[in-house]
Amino acid sequence: MFLPEVKSQKDEDICILIRVENHSYNYICECGEATSLTVKECQNTKAIFISHTHIDHFVNFDTILRHQIGIKQRIIICGPKGITKQVQSRIQSYCWNLITEDAIIYEVREIQSQETIKKAELKPPFWEITPLEDTSPPTVYENELFEVTYTILDHKTETIAYLFKGRDKTKIDLQKGDFKGGKWVKDLKTAFETNDINASIDIEGNMYKASDLFHLIEVKKGKKLGVIMDHAASPSNHNNILTTFKDADQVFIESFYKIEDKEAAISNYHSYSSESGRIMKECLVKEAIPVHFSRKYNEIDIEELIKEFEHAYKE
Q1: N or C: lower Cβ tally within 10 Å for the chain?
Q2: Where do the domains of the chain lie?
Q3: For 100-130, what is each residue's pLDDT tens digit?
Q4: Average pLDDT over every residue of 198-218
């Protein structure tokens, strides 16, 4: 369902583009430098997810803004405390005397805590912050195909890790019964999805209690994709990761340092290769992908780091 692609090179700041099967829009996680992120991809983006606003995760926001101005769409931006004002400040640093009011709308969803998400709107030409009705956690974004939840991690500042989860799909296995297809199939699905066990289902003029037909239903679980950026390799962070990302299908996780630089990781509140791999193994993630490496490493160093990650994750 999810078709993620790392748009940054190994020596660039992190940016991940997420496409979704049979869906017109895509989604950007992290606004780091990414030379392969195209104008079209920026313009087709429906929502942007920022873990935190250190420069290597936020520097490319201006480029994305440049490509999106004039598309006349509402774009969602999700991020940590303070991001609403930071987005406003970045936009207001430019002159907008020739812009039209309908050029674009940015809706910022600022994650205050695990219990609170503040929403606000920014519109040209003055880009004033207009409060909106708050969103109910833990869902920070949702549409008809998937929802996005989060957990807050510690990087000596709050950083947000996001989980994209596809909607569960239900289907009727007609071979399990003696019925033909018809309107009742949709009615039964609705009853199952709303847990209306006493709903009456009309099949060719015969009435059935919904719960008596639930054995005909098969549930296909939605895929789960995680994006975990900068975080200290601490017990509290690992507990939050385990709670949120257990049994995920695919996770991109920061692995900033090699094992030999463990002390630097600790002092800078980053994770390192073996600890990122270990927590992914503990989470039983089906496919874990290390990303976001220190710029001090050359290509050979990064290959060694990835091997360290893989050893901890797979052995």
Answers
A1: C
A2: 1-137, 169-220
A3: 999 999 999 999 999 999 999 999 999 999 9
A4: 90
What backbone phi and psi angles, to 5 degrees, belong to 117? -130, 120
SS3 314: helix
Q: How far is CA 75 from CA 16, 61, 64, in A?
A: 17, 13, 11
Condensed to tens digits (0 to 9), the pLDDT of residues 220-273 reads: 899 999 999 999 999 999 999 999 999 999 999 999 999 999 999 999 999 999
| 140-174 as b/e: b if 16+ CB within 10 A | bbeeebbbbbbbbbebeebbbbbbbbbbeebebee
Query: Beta-strand (E) ranges in the chain?
Result: 2-6, 16-20, 26-29, 45-49, 74-80, 105-111, 117-122, 129-135, 139-142, 146-154, 158-166, 169-172, 200-203, 206-209, 217-220, 224-228, 250-254, 287-291
Chain CA centroid to CA 290, Å: 16
Report the predicted TM-score, pTM, of the whole model to 2 decimal places.
Answer: 0.91
